[in-house]
Amino acid sequence: MSAPTSLAHASGTFLIGGDLPVHRLGYGTMRLVGDGAWGEPADPLEACRVLRRAVELGVTLIDTADAYGPEIAERLIAEALYPYPPGLVIATKGGITRQGPAKTEFVGRAGYLIQCVEMSLRRLKLDRIDLYQLHRIDPRTPLEESLGALKRMQEQGKIRHIGLSEVTPAEIEEAGKIVKVVSVQNRYSLADRRHEETLAYCERQGIGFLPWYPIAGGKLLKPEQPSAQTLAQIAARHRATVAQLSLAWLLQRSPVMLPIPGTSKVAHLEENVAAAGLKLDKEEWAELEKAAQ
Ligand SMILES: NC(=O)c1ccc[n+]([C@@H]2O[C@H](COP(=O)([O-])OP(=O)(O)OC[C@H]3O[C@@H](n4cnc5c(N)ncnc54)[C@H](OP(=O)(O)O)[C@@H]3O)[C@@H](O)[C@H]2O)c1
């Protein structure tokens, strides 16, 4: 394993939708707000510092959603970073409503999603959202209605690219009949491989894959989890942390992989971004795969 560098550009560049370059290691903002993605940050000044430090470290892909807070993560991004530096891509989402900490309901009605896009534009102080992701497919609303609404916003120049979240290959195919799908955001990590098929589909189609819970929501780092000892040993051998190993594994897993690790702390952000420079050799890769089984 080579020595870590501190800049996100070491993770390489991916062209979202074939024309929107981002450094592959990004940052996710869900952890900036209160527990259960509900309410104000425990430490608002640190939240602001995290966002600014991410940009300083070369992060060019920031993932957010109107459901984080709700509304609070988008507001914090604008407060900390507006006017935005050139090349910064803010990817937001709509389609999940929140009734309290960790309580959600999916809503994909056209009128609602159009309001979501308009309100995200207003909070983020943008004229156009570079990547707008349908946070969930609403089982009670025809997909044509939900994506038709986003397509209209795209035609009006309010959205540049459209992505999906928590979807199967069949759902991406269906969506692809209505809009061009450029990204998918599914739960995926070294410890959680339920979406291998979707990842393989994205790879074949050149669709960006944003794994959420990239360090298993922190569970991968807990000493009581089954592969903890092996992961810690491999990490220690290379003066890296388990969080860094799991991010390096993701980056090497696929060229379409765009991890968006979340944190509320500058120290963890710096550690996570440093993983962009970690390279695993074949033996280390095999050891990690075995340990995570
Ligand atoms: N599409 C969806 O449905 C969906 C769902 C969930 C999340 N997301 C997106 O995906 C992003 C990533 O997911 P996530 O934030 O839930 O999961 P994650 O990145 O796997 O884990 C975040 C958790 O790990 C801790 N952590 C982060 N870096 C660490 C480090 N270096 N050392 C020790 N602990 C560390 C964080 O605590 P600290 O704050 O203490 O660092 C936090 O509790 C979110 O921020 C959000 O943008 C999308």
Characterization of the model:
The chain has about 290 residues and is an alpha/beta fold. Helices cover about 40% and strands about 15% of the residues. It contains ten helices and eleven strands. A seven-stranded parallel sheet has the order 3-4-5-8-9-10-11, covered by helices on one side. The chain has a two-stranded antiparallel sheet with strand order 1-2. The radius of gyration is 18 Å and the shape is globular. It starts with 12 loop residues before the first strand and ends with a helix. The N terminus is likely disordered.
| Major sheet description | 7 strands, parallel
> What order do the SSEs take from the amino end to the carboxyl end, as H and E?
EEEHEHEEEHEHEHEHEHHHH
Mean pLDDT: 94
- The helix/strand class is alpha/beta
The count of β-strands is 11
Instruction: Give the CA-based shape.
Output: globular
Poorly predicted parts: 1-6
Strand content: 15-25%
| N-C termini distance | 22 Å
Strand order in the sheet with the most strands: 3-4-5-8-9-10-11
Layout of helices and strands, plus pairs?
Layout: E1 13-16, E2 20-23, E3 27-28, H1 44-56, E4 61-63, H2 72-81, E5 89-94, E6 96-100, E7 103-106, H3 110-124, E8 129-134, H4 143-155, E9 159-165, H5 169-176, E10 181-185, H6 196-205, E11 208-209, H7 228-237, H8 242-253, H9 266-274, H10 282-292
NADP nicotinamide-adenine-dinucleotide phosphate is lined by residues 28-31, 63, 165-166, 185, 212-218, 221, 243, 260-265, 268, 271-272.
